[in-house]
């Protein structure tokens, strides 16, 4: 997982920003799917 991504997630959790966390999760799963092709 890229460092900038980890930082974004930490920030979202710290702010308890649920929509941001959801968005980051979706982006991560999408990114992982593309990598595995």
Automatic annotation (TrEMBL):
InterPro entries: CmpA. Pfam families: spore_CmpA (PF26301). NCBIfam families: spore_CmpA. This is Cortex morphogenetic protein CmpA.
